UniProtKB/TrEMBL annotation:
Keywords: Lyase, Metal-binding. The keyword Membrane does not apply. The keyword Lyase applies. One of its GO terms (molecular function) is hydroxymethylglutaryl-CoA lyase activity. GO terms for biological process: ketone body biosynthetic process; L-leucine catabolic process. InterPro entries: Aldolase_TIM, HMGL, PYR_CT. Belongs to the HMG-CoA lyase family. Residues 11-278 form the Pyruvate carboxyltransferase domain. The lineage of its organism: Bacteria, Pseudomonadati, Pseudomonadota, Gammaproteobacteria, Oceanospirillales. NCBIfam families: PRK05692.1. It comes from Vreelandella populi. CDD domains: DRE_TIM_HMGL. This is Hydroxymethylglutaryl-CoA lyase.
Length: 315
């Protein structure tokens, strides 16, 4: 039996471009355009869309319309709308908009935590406890994203023991899902496989999501390594948009349509209509005003065929 025969036959993709993708763009995408875009994404078979962030407009001006976006989109059955919140106030705003999931963010390294959130990991955990108090009884799923899991742009390597320690503390708090984030694309497939093996062995029932950036061209390879370890949930951004404004050298996320194409070509069910997704991806350059890194929307699927050149058909 080959190793691949024991890998998951179905995965789930969380589309993060409306939040992670737009937060770093140079221009503001109008609210109505965001709403139309998210509505189009929700019709492609994606099961979870991170629509925005309830953060300070001063910190992330591109997402200053968070409440208008969430209340304006068409809520489709079977599609969960998740939002990022940085603090208790953000959580209260998100709850008022009837979101399905709240995503909290902290860093695995002290330096990135101070640069990004002005908090150490321990301070973030204290804030998470306060947010969990506010959301208790709401029925909203609470996920925590652990940034710099695979390396910090300031400190370098983050020890695996430190990552496991923080995951254990998150679970002890009552966090329901954990995302392991390669914030600046420092991960490699061997490292990803080791860590995923470790967390799944220790917490087999915990829904872990993997979040990769394609900074050094290894996003798809890292996703493949995580899948081979048994991971079934992945963050991805349409067109390969995204990047953390507080992480030097960060570039776009692993591209949603490229990730879907890879897995579907391997016979892994993503639940996503790739043709419909490519149609939405094709609208991105006009929406944001520049070309995007995604490859499949430009090259076409691997099943694409071309007519033979006339010169080759002559006897």
């Amino acid at each position: 039996m080959s190793q691949l025969s024991t890998c998951p036959l179905r995965i789930e993709i969380n589309e993060v471009a409306p939040r992670d993708g737009l937060q770093i763009e140079s221009r503001f995408v109008p609210t109505e355009d965001k709403i139309r875009w998210i509505d189009a994404l929700s019709s492609t078979g994606l099961k979870r869309i991170e629509a925005t962030s309830f953060t300070s407009p001063k910190a992330i001006p591109n997402l200053r319309d968070a409440a208008d976006v969430v209340t304006g989109i068409q809520r489709r059955e079977g599609v969960d709308i998740t939002v990022l919140v940085p603090n208790v106030k953000g959580a209260e705003r998100a709850l008022a908009c009837n979101v399905d999931e709240i995503n909290l963010v902290m860093s695995a390294s002290d330096s990135h935590g101070l640069a990004n959130l002005r908090m150490t990991p321990e301070q973030s955990l204290e804030q998470f406890a306060a947010i969990l108090d506010v959301t208790q009884g709401s029925g909203v799923f609470i996920n925590a994203s652990l940034s710099t899991t695979f390396g910090c742009p300031f400190e370098g390597e983050v020890p695996e023991a430190r990552v496991l320690e923080l995951v254990e503390k998150l679970i002890a708090l009552g966090i329901q899902g954990v995302t392991l984030c390669d914030t600046t694309g420092m991960a490699n497939p061997a490292q990803v496989k080791r860590l995923c093996d470790a967390v799944l062995k220790r917490w087999p029932e915990m829904p872990f999501t993997l979040h990769f950036h394609n900074t050094r061209g290894m996003g798809l390879a890292n996703a493949l390594a995580a899948w081979q370890a048994g991971i079934t949930r992945f963050d991805a951004a349409l067109g390969g948009l995204g990047g953390c404004p507080f992480a030097p050298g960060a570039t776009g996320n692993v591209c949603t349509e490229d990730l879907v194409h890879m897995f579907e070509a391997m016979g892994v069910d993503t639940g996503v209509d790739l043709e419909a997704l490519l149609d939405v991806a094709a609208t991105l350059p006009e929406l944001i005003g520049h070309e995007v890194p995604g490859q499949v929307v430009k090259a076409g699927k691997s099943t694409r065929r071309y007519a033979m050149p006339a010169s080759a058909l002559k006897p």
